[in-house]
Amino acid sequence: MNRALVIGLTGAAATLLAACSASTTTTTPTPTAATIPVTSTPVATSTPVATTAPTATPTAVPAAVDLSGSWTGQYSGAFSGHFTLTWTQSGATLNGTIVLSSPPKTLHVNGNVGGTAITFGAVGGVSYSGSVSGNSMSGSYQVPGGGPGGTWSASKP
Fold first, then answer.
1. Cβ neighbour number for residue 115 with a 10 Å cutoff
2. Which residues, other chains included, contact 68 with Cβ-Cβ below 8 Å and sequence gap of 6+?
3. Each residue's pLDDT tens digit, 84-109
4. Considering the domain 69-155 in this protein, what is its CATH number?
5. Domain ranges of the chain
6. Which own/partner pairs from 50-59 qualify as long-range (CB within 8 Å, at least 24 positions apart)?
7. Per-residue pLDDT tens digits for 12-38
């Protein structure tokens, strides 16, 4: 590097330091809005967006009713007759037997209850769905293969 340039830069730095240390002000004044020139249009700031809190993993809806015990009822439609249904219940899961009058059979049956909704099946492939209200329940049934179904109702004696 050129020796004259180095000496010139060193001298300029020394002069700047001397000027700063010779200042009689002990604090630097804070600029006010009146002393700051406006050079551009103010930029709009973004509004924070609300976020939602994480939600818990959904769990099975507990049964709102106790269907344990014996129920008697009737069914009509593609098949007609009477039945006796005996349930045991564990949470929302139902297990039991159904005794049909026509065709005369005793079959094992499984089901579920959630709130007032009930579903059960395995009665020769027939599936039942409906709702429960107090000591009564009713709904519809569907036969396998999309054939005609019907309705059912039952009550707890």
1. 13
2. 87, 88, 89
3. 999 999 999 999 999 989 888 898 99
4. 2.40.128.120
5. 69-155
6. none
7. 444 433 444 444 555 556 555 555 555
